[in-house]
Amino acid sequence: MTLKPRTSGIAAGINCIIHCLEDGLELRLWILGWLALAAFASSIMIFLDFNHFFSMALARSPHLSSGGPLGMVFELLRDCFTPQDPTSGFDLLFDLCTHIAQGRVFPSTAYLLGASRLLALEKPSGSVRPIVMEEVLHRLVACTLGFQFREALVDHFSPLQFGVATRGGCETIIHGLRATLDLHLDWVVL
Description:
two-stranded antiparallel ribbon; membrane; globular; disordered N terminus; mainly alpha; transmembrane helix; 56% helix; transmembrane; 190 residues
């Protein structure tokens, strides 16, 4: 897949979305190629600096955020497991999260760690905003890997990534989808 270099503005994002929606097979092959590369690379480098990024993710975890289905919250992890205190069990939490990130957990445990709670909050306009709250350990591992591989992920998924650290990302996707549907009147969104 050949993609144009990232340019600023919603127009560039809309063009990228139109291109990707029109050429879905190539995009799927591109993503599968990335996943295969990531699986191979993970056995070599995934935890090169994991401890540093794990400590950073735990320290920067959101305050007063809702817990997942098991009820655990970030404040509990931050208060109980401090990297500076060798008796706090931080190494055990780190080892657990390393196992989660490497996929080395029992299926029943993986099921619980991947659990989410869905809430529907009413907006002032009367419509509904769906909010998904994932389990805290799962969010912590995802945040850690995001910190560790931030540059590689941005380089690889740019300009297709609109969700994280992208100004106006949601609006760009909506306008791109509408523009694509305007070009293809026989298409529908499911």
